[in-house]
Design brief:
The protein has 303 residues and is α+β, with helices and mostly antiparallel strands. 17% of the residues lie in helices and 31% in strands. The termini are far apart. Residues 24-81 are annotated as: Disordered.
């Protein structure tokens, strides 16, 4: 066969191959939004009052629509912010337990951190409201076994009331962690929160904290054992004027303790010192009783 004849035969074959290729499965589809530049570092870790805090990251969408985690920061990239942990500390005021919080760099030794902060005592603003600590420095957890934290040497100074308050501070502070349910002091048996529940005031305010800058609307939280489970709140401005009131119902009351959550709002044109008062209305004469006063900084909220 001559080269010219072979070329004439090959031409139809080539055309057929092109047509067959064009009849294949379509490859159309949605590509989704254009990709954005990857962040220079992983998202900041979430604060968690956990004995073994770990950073967390939110997944972000990829080009295919499948969530993917951000890449780990490279050695030359910007370092992520250090993880933190928020711990609850129980101080003493007028012979009762009162909570506050501290946010510190994260550590695996959260029990040691908690006892160190507890011994350090309240801030000047907290001390001005009457908060104090009875725990000296140097008290540490020697081991945690089966949910029981055992302490080393614990000072036995003071009368029975003071010693019991000191123990209650430690128990209520350490048992915030999932790994600790009870605490053992020296050679005694393990004790838990229920053994010191009588040292709580009728109304406990867990938020806001003393000196905190708050914005409207504000959520006031805590626990209470009050008449008909009703907890009342009012907000005072720098001049002592009442700018907001509210009330809520605890999950239990009149002989049992329950959690409460009250939301209040206010209007102020400027930032100023203020006061949050949480109280019970007397069933006898309607007066405010068992009042807890929390000095705060009121953020402006407009007209």
């Amino acid at each position: 066969m001559s080269p010219r004849s072979a070329a004439r035969l090959a031409a139809p074959v080539l055309i057929a191959a092109v047509l067959v290729g064009g009849c294949g499965t379509p490859r159309s589809g949605v590509l989704g939004p254009a990709p954005t530049a990857a962040p220079s570092s992983a998202p900041a870790p979430t604060e968690r009052p956990d004995p073994t805090p770990t950073p967390s990251a939110e997944p972000r969408p990829s080009r295919t629509g499948t969530p993917t985690l951000p890449p780990a920061p490279s050695a030359t990239g910007t370092r992520p912010r250090a993880a933190t942990v928020t711990i609850e500390l129980w101080y003493v005021r007028s012979g009762r337990l009162v909570p506050t919080h501290r946010t510190r760099p994260a550590t695996v030794a959260t029990s040691r951190l908690a006892l160190t902060e507890l011994a350090a005592g309240p801030t000047p603003a907290e001390a001005a409201t009457g908060l104090a600590t009875l725990l000296p420095t140097g008290v540490e957890v020697t081991r945690i076994t089966d949910g029981v934290a055992t302490l080393g040497t614990v000072p036995s100074t003071g009368d029975r009331v003071e010693r019991r308050l000191r123990e209650a501070q430690v128990v209520w502070t350490l048992t915030q962690f999932p790994t600790v349910r009870q605490v053992r002091f020296g050679g005694g048996g393990p004790v838990g929160r229920a053994d010191y529940a009588d040292l709580l005031p009728p109304i406990v305010v867990s938020g806001p904290r003393v000196g905190e800058r708050v914005t409207a609307p504000l959520t006031v939280t805590g626990t209470a054992d009050v008449f008909e489970a009703t907890v009342s709140v009012r907000v005072l401005d720098a001049a002592g004027r009442e700018v907001a009131t509210g009330f809520g119902t605890a999950s239990c009351g009149s002989g049992c303790r329950g959690g409460y959550r009250v939301v209040v709002g206010w209007h102020t044109a400027r930032e100023q010192r203020g006061t949050i008062e949480v109280y019970e209305v007397s069933a006898r004469d309607g007066s405010r009783i068992n009042t807890v006063v929390v000095p705060v900084l009121l953020a402006p909220s407009g007209g």
